[in-house]
């Protein structure tokens, strides 16, 4: 999805490069933006953007960095929404050029048309980036497509690192420093799934991207997403921890009134051995420490029995970071003071998912 976002931004910066390559049969004198009110409404209702007027026709691109089996129906809906707008403002039903740009084979559903028993026949152009000849893009100076060079078709004898190096060298021939930074930013994002971060960072250094508005916007989106995700995770963790402490209080308060451990088990979901250990705790904090110790101990046993780390996380609810730490430890500390410190450190490292 990040790659979709990067390409959509790039298409707005170099729209003519895309039009010239994707629709070579199209001749035009002018290219202009669609009215902002229309684009904003479509983004809200149809999630479509990258629409341009080209003389009296319209072009619309849809970069695809994920698989969507319903894509043909979605593209038809985009066309319908565009026509509804043009008809309402008295422009009738102009010709619309539509194209889907697949970034990887995993995204390609292999369908680019809809046929309804002879009553409807609809199709759109498909561009499969891995089938594009990189030399064609370089020789044709299709600058807007340069960020896709590393995932295009290259000579067989080139290794992956040389492809990144050559792609960066091509982008470095662009004279406009801001455009160059945008192209490098887009390439680092779009190729992130296909190339290791170490190779990308070796040839695309952070200082090379600082002039890029695209990079700054991507960083802001990333920070906003991380902040939102952090808030959600924090809320979930608070609810989980609160739920556990609530159950512990049930155990501590119930032991004097309820002699049947099986009933407490039904109320809390805790095992009977755990209930018996918790019932001996002097307070909630100590009981919570015992609970976390038992959880860590269960994870340790599963690791010793060669369970996969993901399975340990799923069964215990522990975060992968903590499970990895447990796997590296010889034993779980039993001393109360040592354990308390270890427990708090683990919790700060997102002990529970």
* Helix segment tally: 15
Return the domain count: 3
Instruction: Please summarize the sheet with the most strands.
Output: 5 strands, mixed
Write the element-wise H/E pattern from the N-terminal end onward: HHEHEEHEEEEHHHHHHHHHHH
Question: Key terms for this structure?
Answer:
353 residues; five-stranded mixed beta sheet; 3 domains; 15 helices; disordered C terminus; two-stranded antiparallel ribbon; 56% helix; alpha/beta
Report on this model:
The chain is of the alpha/beta class and 353 residues long. It folds into 3 domains: 1-131; 135-211, no CATH class; 226-348, no CATH class. Helix content is 56%, strand content 9%. The chain has helices at residues 2-13, 15-22, 36-45, 71-88, 134-139, 160-171, 177-190, 197-203, 213-254, 261-268, 272-279, 284-304, 309-316, 320-328, 336-348, and strands spanning 31-33, 51-54, 57-64, 96-102, 113-115, 121-123, 125-128. It has a 5-stranded mixed sheet with strand order 1-2-3-4-7. Strand 3, helix 4 and strand 4 form a beta-alpha-beta unit. Helix 12 runs antiparallel to helix 13. The two termini are 24 Å apart. Residues 334-341 and 346-353 have low confidence and may be disordered.
């Amino acid at each position: 999805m990040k790659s979709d976002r990067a390409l959509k931004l790039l298409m707005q910066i170099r729209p003519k490069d895309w039009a010239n390559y994707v629709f070579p049969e199209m001749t035009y004198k002018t290219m202009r933006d669609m009215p902002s009110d229309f684009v904003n409404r479509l983004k809200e209702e149809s999630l479509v953007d990258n629409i341009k007027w080209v003389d009296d026709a319209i072009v619309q691109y849809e970069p695809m960095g994920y698989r969507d089996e319903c894509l043909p129906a979605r593209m038809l809906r985009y066309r319908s929404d565009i026509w509804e707008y043009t008809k309402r403002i008295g422009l009738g039903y102009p010709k619309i050029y539509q194209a889907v740009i697949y970034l990887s084979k995993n995204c390609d559903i292999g369908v680019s048309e809809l046929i309804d028993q002879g009553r409807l026949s609809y199709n759109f152009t498909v561009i499969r980036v891995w089938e594009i000849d990189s030399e064609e893009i370089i020789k044709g100076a299709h600058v807007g497509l340069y960020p896709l060079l590393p995932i295009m078709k290259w000579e067989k004898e080139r290794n992956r690192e040389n492809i990144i190096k050559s792609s960066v060298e091509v982008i470095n021939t662009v004279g406009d420093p801001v455009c160059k930074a945008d192209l490098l930013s887009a390439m680092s994002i779009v190729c992130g799934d296909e190339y290791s971060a170490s190779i990308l960072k070796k040839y695309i250094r952070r200082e090379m991207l600082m002039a890029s508005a695209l990079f700054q916007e991507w960083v802001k989106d990333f920070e906003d997403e991380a902040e939102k995700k952090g808030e959600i995770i924090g809320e979930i963790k608070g609810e989980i921890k609160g739920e556990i402490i609530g159950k512990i209080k049930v155990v501590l308060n119930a032991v004097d009134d309820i002699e049947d451990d099986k009933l407490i088990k039904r109320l809390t979901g805790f095992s009977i051995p755990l209930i018996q250990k918790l019932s001996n705790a002097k307070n909630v904090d100590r009981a919570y420490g015992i609970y976390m110790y038992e959880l860590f101990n269960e994870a340790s046993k599963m690791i010793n029995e060669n369970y996969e780390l993901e399975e340990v996380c799923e069964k215990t609810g522990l975060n992968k970071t903590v499970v990895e730490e447990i796997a590296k430890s010889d034993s779980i500390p039993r001393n109360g003071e040592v354990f308390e410190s270890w427990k708090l450190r683990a919790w700060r490292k997102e002990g529970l998912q």
